[in-house]
Design goal:
- The protein is mostly helical and about 140 residues long.
- Helices cover about 45% and strands about 5% of the residues.
- The chain has helices spanning about 25-35, 45-50, 55-65, 85-115; strands spanning about 40-45, 70-75.
- It has a two-stranded parallel sheet with strand order 1-2.
- The termini are far apart.
């Protein structure tokens, strides 16, 4: 995608995109609000890196649009100026949420199964360690 954009600022989030309460994400939104006359678009690698909740995606997208700021995904090009493009973006944000929820379910199921088989599934508190020679560890 070539849009002749000049990168004003790069925001890199170390945490997962599960919620909007991410430090760099909030810093990016604040930057966009303060500099909305210079910011033409927010460019992300993928929709799933923007938000993993379809509702969060939609609300944030509306807030950016009110500032006349577009959202572009490098790996999933869509044209949000067309009905088909908006539909595609909605499907991608829904898929990001679905994928995140399925991973959470599998993680919990795996932890329950490991716990039932006698394995320690949580990190030991500070000052303690798990004994690797113990059965099930």
């Amino acid at each position: 995608m070539r849009n002749d954009y000049t990168v004003l600022k790069v925001f890199v989030e170390a945490k997962s995109a599960k919620t909007l309460a991410r430090q760099e994400f909030q810093a990016m939104l604040t930057f966009c609000a303060k500099n909305h006359k210079q910011v033409r678009a927010v460019v992300v690698y993928s929709v799933s890196r923007f938000a993993r909740s379809a509702a969060d995606h939609a609300v944030t997208k509306v807030n950016l649009r009110k500032l006349s700021i577009a959202l572009h995904s490098v790996s999933e090009p869509f044209d949000d100026e067309t009905p088909a493009g908006r539909f595609t973006e909605t499907i991608m944000s829904g898929y990001a949420q679905l994928d995140n929820e399925i991973r959470a379910e599998r993680t919990i199921a795996g932890m329950i199964a490991a716990s039932k088989s006698g394995k320690w599934v949580h990190r030991a508190p500070i000052g303690y360690h798990t004994d690797a020679s113990s059965p099930g560890n």
